[in-house]
Amino acid sequence: AIARPDMVDLRSGMTLLQAVQSLGGTLEGARRDYVHLLRLLPDGMSHQQFIVSLPEMERRLVGDVTLQPGDVISIPFTAGEDETRSFAALLRRAAFDAPPLTTAGKPQAVSTIKPRTRGGKRKQERQ
After folding, report:
1. Which residues have C-beta within 8 Å of that of residue 40, sequence separation ≥ 6?
2. I want to staple 24 with a disulfide (CB 3.0 to 4.6 A). Which of 4, 11, 44, 109 is the partner?
3. Residues in a beta bridge with 51
4. pTM of whole model > 0.90?
5. How are beta strands 122-126 and 35-40 bridged, if at all?
């Protein structure tokens, strides 16, 4: 639900809000309170998912998140099916081609996505 979805050239200190603004902001119907940030962990294979709220960052109730190389931001629409489909596609893309993005706000860790095991399933840790 970003106006012009694309990769962002990450500048030093760039925040989530700055990245979203550089892409034209959000579209009507965007879940601005439920923004997904997928961050590549130091092992280079696992990702950690965070949920942040743009309105809380804009009102300075929480801090803006500084983005890091490889961060992926997804802002779903309010419709559940579209949200699930777009985030699943995002996860597939992130596994192979993590763009140079970073995020802003006080993230809440939701889960860590690990590489596939021999049986083809992913191990997922809840936090």
Report:
1. 46, 47, 68, 69, 70, 71, 94, 98
2. 4
3. 36, 108
4. no
5. unpaired
For residues 105 and 18, the answer to whether their CB atoms sit within 8 Å is no
Q: What is the pLDDT of residue 106?
A: 45
pLDDT confidence of residue 21: 92
- Which helix (H) or strand (E) segment is 19 a member of? helix 16-22
With b for 16 or more beta-carbon neighbours within 10 A and e for fewer, the 102-118 pattern comes to bbbbebeeeebbbeeee
- 8, 15 in Cβ contact below 8 A? no
- Distance set, CA 92 to CA 54, 57, 59, 81, 104 (Å): 24, 28, 33, 17, 23
pLDDT of residue 88: 60
What is the rounded distance in angstroms from the CA atom of residue 69 to the CA atom of residue 59? 26
* Cβ neighbours, 10 Å, residue 33: 12
pLDDT along the chain (127 residues), means of 10: 85 91 90 90 86 92 88 82 56 55 45 51 49
